[in-house]
Design goal:
The complex is a heterodimer of chains A (929) and B (271).
Chain A: E1 2-5, H1 6-19, E2 25-31, E3 34-41, H2 55-67, E4 71-79, H3 88-92, E5 100-105, E6 113-120, E7 123-127, E8 129-132, H4 143-161, H5 166-173, E9 178-180, E10 186-191, H6 200-213, E11 217-220, E12 226-232, H7 236-245, E13 262-263, H8 278-289, E14 303-306, E15 320-327, E16 330-337, E17 349-356, H9 360-374, H10 385-408, H11 440-449, E18 450-452, E19 459-463, E20 469-471, H12 472-484, E21 489-492, E22 498-503, H13 505-518, E23 532-533, H14 547-560, E24 573-576, E25 590-599, E26 602-611, E27 624-630, H15 634-648, H16 655-672, H17 708-730, H18 733-754, H19 762-774, H20 783-795, H21 805-820, H22 845-850, E28 856-857, H23 865-875, E29 882-887, H24 891-902, E30 906-912, E31 918-923
Parallel strand pairs in A: 1-8, 4-5, 13-14, 14-15, 23-24, 24-25, 28-29
Antiparallel strand pairs in A: 2-3, 2-4, 5-6, 6-7, 9-10, 10-12, 11-12, 11-20, 15-16, 16-17, 18-19, 19-22, 21-22, 25-26, 26-27, 29-31, 30-31
Chain B: H1 5-10, H2 12-15, H3 21-30, E1 32-36, H4 42-52, E2 56-60, H5 85-96, E3 101-105, H6 114-118, E4 123-126, H7 131-144, E5 148-154, E6 157-163, H8 171-174, H9 187-190, H10 194-213, E7 222-227, E8 232-237, H11 265-270
Parallel strand pairs in B: 1-2, 1-4, 2-3, 4-5
Antiparallel strand pairs in B: 5-6, 6-7, 7-8
The chains are: A alpha+beta (929), B alpha/beta (271).
């Protein structure tokens, strides 16, 4: 008996047809009698009458089957022209006992048949073969994820009982895709959806779970995930279990992990695609998720698949990007790597011109391992793969890739069944809802959003979702609308929206009508009216500006002045609230990111504006900066630009071409004319962000998170301090004193910003500086004199600052030095200030740099290599210093401390951690050897 | 050379020794050892020094690999027969440890060339098979002040002595001049059991390693004799000879000369 899920049944037939006139062949694996995976293999005979497998493929497949805990259930092959019966040849070559032989026959063009046989005593006996439902979910969840989810439940229990403080739960929680929202105590759960695939059933389930465990708020992300918001931590384990039942998990949704793999939303139906990349997205997702190391990478890792050279999945900014292509009739991929967006975005480079489909897992594994091995784990800000590319250079990077490719060896792709009815073999369901007769808006909607699929007679439609936000009710209604239209499938898009398809034409009308009844933006016409924005400072701890509010302000402006035009129809806007590119502004037609600037001592929100992205045949380039202006001026500037652009862009000209030709200059001038900042007295609205009454501040943005925008601002303030100091040297009298005051005030403010402190007055500024920086001895006590002098001068109790100049200069120098010494956790790594009564520090650089803030992580390192590394680290610190190391349970924690003791080193403590590892502290005995 | 994660793993077994550690490993990286002869003694010595991570290995040997070598010269393979020995040695060392810098010289060391060749090396290993070469090496090292390991093997016997010029006995302190022509047989004439070469050559590598690491005791002033038939080690103290012609109080040898005909008699016969 063989139970074959629908998805695999259809895959068998599709592969048989694709291979004809040659016999297709491979292995079916699973848990008897249920087939769970299909392993397509090479027919070494390349014949239409018989087949044979390659030994090395057989070994690789057998290993992979074992690794997944499955068994080989059947050997399959196709008969392009003959019936589904075992031929003499087939019988002769049937040596494997205990399995079935499945034959796919294409003999009858109207009715492809699959039959199964078992062979006993050289004779075939027909075996039962049953077609069964596909398991739920859009990919096959590896067992490891279930275990991780169970472990997570235990961690939350420990946390709730008080044994695991929040900062210790964090590294366990974030790689499970659970992020803390700005309102403490509530969390967001990011459910990964490979390629954004989502069925109406899943959408309903997510809505139900959002209501049951959260506030009902859902969000579609720019990486095709769906987030469930406002979940209390104690509800997260139940939510995760419920998600698992639907074949879903947020595992890897966040943290230093392999993130959701994205793909063209039209994969499987796009008229331009080379082939459907969806099965590959699922297979690579499964491959990565099975490996623990995918959750312990140096930083996040983003992969994507594009179905053709148009590169709609943006391989130009992927850590690893696969672009479908065909060579000599074989499907495969062009592989790109090392791209990424952030403070230092860069375009990916070509790693391999053609990787055949049976090697694509090896290629994906190679890039991941390259990242694992070479990503800089010590410096969070330079840890992404694109920095490895920067450091190694293109050729160096390609060499590393080739080495990893060779080391990764053969990884046989296998595919789990996923209901896919895009190829037209199963008929789309007729719509159950009727179209509204003669709805005038339908025609416009259809022109803007309907797409003819490559399958004749089938259609897809874009469903924009403003800022990606849906309530649970809206999501349920949306699921109903999609079903009622007869659509067979849906995907989340990188524009925070959805795409539904596989409908007959009649379904379009039904869909439009249903969507219009749910919410207006769902039948929106222009991407310009649907800017994509990151979460922004309202919910994100790293955010500087309220990007969503700006997005809304732009929508309002564009609608009010009717700034869209047919020629500008396709242009999109993306807004990020800080230089981290969560809104993906580097790949936007018009992109913006928020920054904080200081004018006359006050902070204001600014945005830097970009344009000119290119992908695919049109070129590979990120958007370029065109200018930086106060946030308040952005709607005016964008409006002016769009007005001019609408008239200037030629019919049929792409936005990218227009930007290069004339648009960039127009944008630059629109920005340049609005760079003036009104004084606070003149127009305080400049000093407030969109949609809020309170003044712009960085309060609440703390250290510990990688606040790229924050560091940017601190650097600007320190540069300001330096500049003021230089000015003071060239000036005299009041001008000199003012410059000196500016210098000390800027330097103090800069360091306090690092601690998320934004003092309301100068007196508070110096008091806070005293508390935060002089008291803990980061500055010598004598620095107080400079602060007092400055404050006295400011208050008029002192007539000049000349005498305080050296002290102020010393403060600025020290502030600079401390800032440059910041480690990736935003901690100073210089020795504290000594002398003048400060408590003598027993240790210098050693303990600060290598004490409890920087344990050497030797988890995963086998004995005795772990001891060798620990020993070398100990040698590097002076006698008397303490080294902290992390070791795995078992042999490592037994052997390493013992080895240290036997070599005369002092083991101070061995502490068991709730996460399962151990922390060991060793004091170096001196004198050396 | 940087002690990266991969190198730590490669050398982990010696790094964890209290006497070695990362510091010792760095000393090995910085060390330069010259091997004169890539034959029975040079083969194991070169392989073990390369494995330990000695940063630079110089190898000088003018011979080609001969089938008769393969009974003991384990750095060469059957496929190498006919190739210059230093080339074959270089290939094997590179395959074992690509970190090692190799200076291979397919030539004979002579009085004229040896001083220049050994300049810059920290330690020399005498892996030659004839007395003329051994005395040449001794004199050159003593005159240059470079420590070296002397060794010789025949039949089931081997011996080695470490010479620290100016501090411990040199070869001429033991035997002021080479034996007369024909008095001592060569391996070709008398024979040798392979592993004897392995033992002595490996002990030479250990002398070099201890010298580099600055640990333990060297065989300076001590002649170690191994009887492979009786499985016995014997030691003879060799004091410095104040009348030694090259390292004594009034040395008469102040420059190098090629002693007797340097070519091996058997080879000469074949040619």
């Amino acid at each position: 008996m063989l139970e074959i899920p629908n998805g695999i049944w259809e895959d068998l037939i599709a592969r048989a047809r694709a291979a004809a006139p040659i016999e297709a062949c491979g292995i079916l694996a699973g848990r008897d009698p249920r087939v769970e995976r299909i392993y397509p293999m090479t027919n070494a005979d390349r014949s239409g009458e018989h087949f044979s497998l390659l030994p090395e493929e057989q070994f690789a497949v057998a290993r992979d089957i074992r690794r997944r805990g499955l068994a080989m259930l059947a050997l399959y092959h196709s008969h392009p022209a003959t019936p589904a019966r075992m031929s003499e040849e087939d019988l002769r070559l049937a040596f494997t006992p205990g399995i079935a032989y499945a034959i796919v026959s294409l003999a009858d063009p109207d009715a492809h048949r699959i039959a199964a046989f078992r062979v006993a005593e050289g004779r075939p006996h027909a075996d039962d073969i049953r077609r069964v439902e596909d398991p739920p979910g859009t990919f096959r969840m590896p067992e490891e994820i279930r275990r991780d989810t169970a472990a997570y439940r235990r961690h939350v229990a420990d946390h709730l009982s008080g044994t695991l403080p929040p900062e210790r739960l964090r590294p366990l929680r974030v790689p499970m895709g659970i992020y803390e929202q700005r309102v403490s105590g509530l969390f967001m759960v990011r459910v990964r959806l490979p390629g954004g695939e989502i069925t109406p059933a899943i959408l309903r389930a997510l809505a139900r779970l959002a209501r049951a465990h959260g506030s009902g708020r859902l969000h579609v992300t720019t990486r095709q995930d769906v987030q469930i918001h406002d979940v209390a931590i104690e509800r997260t384990p139940d939510l995760l279990d419920a998600l698992l039942e639907h074949g879903l998990s947020p595992r890897g949704g966040g943290g230093n992990t392999v993130r959701n793999i994205t793909a063209c939303p039209l994969a499987g139906v796009c008229p331009r695609e080379v082939f459907d990349v969806s099965p590959y997205v699922a297979a690579l997702t499964e491959h990565y998720l099975t490996d623990r190391s995918s959750f312990e990478l140096p930083r996040k890792f983003k992969a994507c698949f594009s179905g053709c050279e148009d590169d709609c999945a943006w391989s130009i900014v992927a850590d690893v990007g696969f672009v479908a292509c065909v060579r000599d009739g074989r499907p495969g991929f062009r592989v790109y790597g090392g791209g990424g967006m952030g403070q230092h975005s860069r375009v990916s480079i070509l790693l391999e011109e053609f990787v055949p489909e049976d090697e694509f897992l090896s290629a994906g594994e190679a890039v991941k391992r390259l990242f694992e091995r070479h990503g800089d784990r010590m410096n969070r800000h330079r840890a992404r793969l694109r920095f490895v590319l920067d450091r190694a250079g293109e050729e160096g990077f390609r060499d590393l890739y080739r080495q990893e490719r060779a080391a990764a060896g053969r990884i046989p792709p296998s595919f789990a069944p996923i209901a896919r009815r895009r190829d037209g073999t199963a008929p789309a369901v007729a719509p159950t809802a009727g179209a509204e007769p003669a709805d005038p808006s339908f025609a416009a909607w259809r022109d803007a959003n309907a797409i003819a699929q490559k399958q004749p007679g089938l259609w897809a439609a874009r469903i924009p979702i403003q800022l990606g936000d849906l309530s649970a009710e809206e999501a349920e209604a949306l699921a109903g609308a999609i079903e009622a239209s007869g659509a067979a499938w849906a995907r989340a898009t990188q524009e925070q929206g959805l795409l539904a398809g596989g409908m007959h034409e009649a379904g379009l009308g039904a869909l439009h009508a249903s969507l219009a009844r749910i919410r207006e933006d769902l039948v929106g016409l222009r991407p310009l009216l649907h800017p994509v924005a990151c979460a922004g400072a309202s919910t994100c701890r790293l955010g500087l500006c309220l990007s969503r509010n700006l997005a809304r302000a732009l929508i309002e402006r564009i609608e009010r002045e009717a700034l869209t035009s047919p020629a500008l129809n396709a242009a999109g806007i993306r807004v990020s609230g800080c230089p981290n590119a969560c809104g993906q502004h580097p790949i936007s037609d018009i992109g913006l990111h928020g920054v904080a600037r200081r004018i006359d001592g006050r902070l204001l929100p600014f945005y830097r504006v970009f344009a000119g992205v290119r992908r695919g045949q049109a070129g590979r380039a990120l958007s370029r900066p065109a200018g930086e202006i106060p946030a308040r001026a952005i709607p005016d500037a964008i409006a002016e630009f769009l007005r001019g652009a609408g008239g200037e862009i030629r019919p049929g000209e792409s936005f990218a071409d227009y930007i290069d030709r004339a648009g960039f200059a127009r944008l630059e001038s629109a920005l340049a004319s609005r760079s003036r900042v009104a004084s606070y007295a003149e127009d305080p609205s400049f000093y407030r962000d969109f949609g809020v009454e309170e003044e712009f501040s960085l309060a609440g943005r703390g250290p510990g998170e990688c606040g790229a925008g924050l560091l940017d601002l601190v650097a600007v303030d320190l540069a300001e301090a330096r500049k003021a100091l230089d000015e003071s040297k060239a000036a005299a009298g009041a001008a000199r004193d003012q410059a000196l005051y500016r210098a000390i005030a800027s330097a103090c403010r800069a360091l306090l910003e690092l601690r998320g402190i934004e003092p309301p007055s100068d007196r508070a500024l110096f008091r806070a500086f005293e508390d935060q920086l002089i008291e803990p001895a980061w500055f010598a006590r004598s620095t107080r004199e400079a602060l007092d002098a400055a404050l006295d001068w400011r208050l008029g109790d002192r007539s000049d600052l000349a005498g305080a100049a050296p002290g102020i200069a010393a403060l600025v120098d020290r502030a600079d030095a401390l800032f440059r010494s910041l480690d990736s956790a935003l901690r100073f790594t210089l020795p504290k200030a000594e002398g003048d009564g400060a408590k003598p520090q027993a240790t210098g650089l050693g303990e600060t740099a290598r004490g409890s803030t920087h344990p050497i992580d030797l988890r995963g390192v086998p004995c005795p290599i772990n001891f060798a590394r620990a020993k070398i680290a100990l040698e590097a610190i002076p006698p008397g210093e303490i080294l902290e190391i992390l070791l795995d349970d078992g042999e490592p924690v037994k052997n390493v401390p013992a080895s240290f003791r036997s070599q005369g080193q002092e083991v101070l403590s061995v502490e068991a951690m709730p996460e399962g590892h151990h922390r060991v502290r060793v004091r170096r005995a001196g004198p050396p050897r | 050379m940087e002690l990266n994660v991969e190198r730590i793993e490669r050398y982990s077994r010696q790094i964890i020794l209290p006497e070695v550690g990362g510091e010792g490993q760095r000393k090995l990286f910085d060390a330069r050892v010259l091997l004169v002869g890539a034959g029975g003694l040079g083969s194991p010595a070169a392989l073990y020094l390369a494995a330990a991570g000695v940063g630079t290995l110089g190898i000088i040997d003018s011979d080609d690999v001969d089938l008769s070598n393969l009974g003991r010269q384990i750095i060469h393979t059957t496929a190498d027969v006919g190739r210059p020995k230093v080339e074959s040695a270089e290939d094997r060392i590179r395959a074992l440890n690509p970190d090692v810098r190799i200076r291979a010289l397919s030539e004979r060391a002579t009085a004229a060339t040896l001083p220049g060749i050994l300049a810059g090396y920290d330690f020399v290993i005498d892996g030659t098979d004839n007395f003329a070469s051994k005395y040449l090496i001794n004199d050159a090292c003593v005159l240059a002040g470079v420590p070296y390991s002397h060794a010789g093997i025949i039949r089931f016997q081997g011996q080695l002595l470490t010479v620290l010029p100016g501090r411990s006995a040199c070869l001429r302190c033991l035997f002021p001049s080479p034996p007369p022509e024909g008095a001592a047989p060569t391996c070709a004439q008398a024979g040798i059991l392979g592993p004897v070469a392995g033992v002595i050559g490996t002990l030479q590598a250990l002398e070099a390693a201890r010298w580099i690491l600055g640990i333990g005791d060297l065989l300076a002033g001590r002649l170690l004799i191994y009887d492979a038939l009786r499985a016995r080690f014997r030691e003879v103290a060799i004091p410095r000879d104040p009348r030694c012609p090259v390292c004594g109080e009034s040395p008469t040898i102040r420059e190098l000369r090629d002693e007797a005909p340097v070519a091996c008699p058997t080879r000469a016969a074949r040619v």
